[in-house]
Here is the input.
Amino acid sequence: MLSPYSTSNNGSSFAMMSCVRLVFDIATLWKFGSINKEKILNRAIFLETIAAIPGMVAAIIQHFRSLRNMTRDRGMLNMFLEEANNERMHLLTFICMKEPGTVFRAAVIGAKFGFGRFFLAAYINPAWCHRFVGYVEEEACHTYTRILREMEDAPRGSELARWKDKDAPKIARGYWAMGEDGTVYDEMKAVRAD
Ligand SMILES: [Fe+2]
Here is the structure.
C-alpha cells in the first residue's frame, strides 16, 4: 500500500527523524553486535506500535475538521485510517512470534504517550508532519531491507537462516494472501512493500 505521506525535502522534519532514529537505534541495540531474531522482533514490534500512530491522529483531526467546517475530506480520512490499520496489522503479525515482557510493554506505553502527544501537537502543521512521517517510512524501509539482507546472508543452519524459512504466522499468510507456503522471509518482504 502506498503511503499517504509526502516525502518532499524539509530540513527540520529530516533532522527530527534523524534524532528519533538515533534514539531508536540505541534503545533497540541495533548498532551494537550482530543482528539476531530477538533484535529483529524487538525492533519490528516497537517500530510498528509507533508507525500506527500518525495515521490515526491524522484521521481523527480530519474527521473533526470535516465536522467543524462542514466540508468533505476529499478521501483523506479513509486513506489515513487504512494506513493506521495497515501498520497495526504489521504489529499483529509480529506479535505472533514474540510475547513482549513487562519492561518492553512499559517502554511501548511510554513511547506511545510521548510520540502520540508530540504528533498531535505537531499536527498544527500537517505538511511538516507528513514530511516527517515520509522520512520515518523511508527509514523503516531501510530497516526491513537490512533484515532481509541479514536473513539472506545468514550461514546455513544458523538461527536466522532457520527462522527465515519458517512458516509465517497464519494471520500474516491471510493478510497478504501468501498461501500456505508463506515464510517469515516472505512476510518481511510484504511488510517492506507496504
Ligand atoms: Fe509497518
